[in-house]
Amino acid sequence: MATKDTKRALRSQAWWDNSANPDMTALYLERFLNYGLTRGELQSGRPIIGIAQTGNDLVPCNRHHVALAGRVKDGIRDAGGIPFEFPVHPLQETGKRPTAALDRNLAYLGLVEVLYGYPLDGVVLTTGCDKTTPACLTAAATVNIPAIVLSGGPMLNGYYAGKRAGSGLVIWQCWRMLAAGEIGYDEFMDRVAASAPSVGHCNTMGTALSMNALVEALGMSLTGCAAIPAPYRERAQMAYETGRRAVALVHEDLTPRKVMTRQAFENAIVVASAIAASSNCPVHITSIARHVGVEVSTQDWQTVGGDIPVLTNVAPAGEFLGEDFYRAGGVPAVMHELFAAGRLHGDALTVTGRTVAENVRTTLTSDRAVIRSYQAPLVERGGFLVMSGNLFDSAVMKTSVIGEDFRKRYLSSPDHPDAFVARAIVFEGPEDYHARIDDPRLQVDERCILVIRYTGPLGYPGGAEVVNMQPPAALIAKGIEALPTLGDGRQSGTADAPSILNVSPEAAAGGNLAILKTGDLIHVDLKKARVDVLISDEEIAARRRAMPPLTFKNQTPWQELYRDTIGQLDTGACMEFATKYQDIAHTMGIP
Ligand code: FES
Ligand code: MG
């Protein structure tokens, strides 16, 4: 079902068209001629398509978008549009301190201002590394000009000594091997480098591949875009087709608000479960939804996605990597399974101009080892558990990555197969954790839960990916590879740890995690989705009264502004005031 071509006056003509704006046109126009554009082009009523460029030398995960933009421009030109490429504030997950998450909203703000304030009729959003995707989509949602995503795609598969070495995951695994004395630092670095063999983003189902898959599920990219490995020829061909389609979107006035509906978000949540998506996805998807005016709550991840099985055998939940996922059919093959099982809204409209059903009806997988059938999945239930209790209102747990060994140790009591009690070891952030985890005085044993606090959006600005803490080296050497963890920070989407994370409200926002003491007993009940410290309400109240008031030490102007405006992880870590600016493209009084 394609939307109708309306042949409306284009937004950009409020800048370029002499009759619309005779006084100002010369000023708006002349500087764009100085590198060779002609008045004929700019005043011809052709769609002006922005290319929001997230690639640069500071963002290696997206750097090949600099080259891909050439093919996007070819596509835009061939379809009758005029491309304008511009930079997005750099967002590199692994290089930005204190966190890349802090800058998600900064890049968002910058992009909103560009999309709003320049003569753009539509935009191609180049996405990849974790925060680039939500920053771009949230901005397009706010402004609501026609937008389409070009994912950058994962790196090629990494291999070390003949075995697959997946992004991020290899680091967590090698930390354990290093701690157990199985490898030295040089081998550690060689193994980690082997996981990054080419341009592209993480090749595991971390936050990057998860979020780009969810873009496809939301209907905001062409079918099959997310999984194409970055260096493949198909990636550049996809760039060309995306450019072409961007021009058509403008003619059809197919805006983000027409695509990103409640149905589309439910589809995204269902796909998230089926791919065992990163635990960062609920945060980002909530942010996008709030800015496009659709109600999505963290609870939806359990109600809508809780009983969806994991279909993709891709790390960290499974064994394969990005190239295997692509060859097996990628997101369309996963969506085909879900659609055939009646779990998707098939009539949701997408930027292809067609519905989800039309896009995925024939997209069968070619490899059942990588993409399972709905009837014979990798894991029966892939959704996030959304937890609450006397320490917090909301937290999520990615149950699909809980290992057998952990289940045996913690979840095998015949009376309470879904619950355990553990002694809390509390850390005041990642620096404290690294300084003390191997201190024998902590007496960490296999009946402990590692807790980290002051690591949420306010406490460690942006929210640090630190909840997937490793056990002390002495315990790892004894074969205990994972302890349960709890924290108000986030964790890498590539982590395979049994963590309760994204705790909201965080300790720094007055959450009860702040009153916890090392030695307290914590009761975790996966069936009831509850986490409770086993002390009385009176004791909790007394400890709260005794707490000194909290002050923040901002290191940059942006950190101060961020902390003044930021919400919690369970509501998307949005700048709360910003969510009221919706559908603003035409508020300047232009067409
Ligand atoms: Fe950039 Fe994983 S660090 S995609
Ligand atoms: Mg990450």
TrEMBL record:
Stored Pfam families: ILV_EDD_C, ILVD_EDD_N
Location of the Dihydroxy-acid/6-phosphogluconate dehydratase C-terminal domain: 370-573
PROSITE patterns in UniProt: ILVD_EDD_1 (PS00886)
Domain Dihydroxy-acid/6-phosphogluconate dehydratase N-terminal: 46-359
The keyword Lyase appears for this protein: yes
Keywords assigned: Iron, Iron-sulfur, Lyase, Metal-binding
InterPro entries on file: Dihydro-acid_dehy_C, DiOHA_6PGluconate_deHydtase_CS, ILV_EDD_C, ILV_EDD_N, IlvD/EDD_N, Sugar_Degrad_Dehydratases
The keyword Iron belongs to this UniProt entry's keyword annotation: yes
Example GO molecular function: iron-sulfur cluster binding
Protein family (similarity comment): Belongs to the IlvD/Edd family.
Stated name of the protein: Dihydroxy-acid dehydratase family protein
Organism: Corallococcus exercitus
High-level lineage: Bacteria, Pseudomonadati, Myxococcota, Myxococcia, Myxococcales
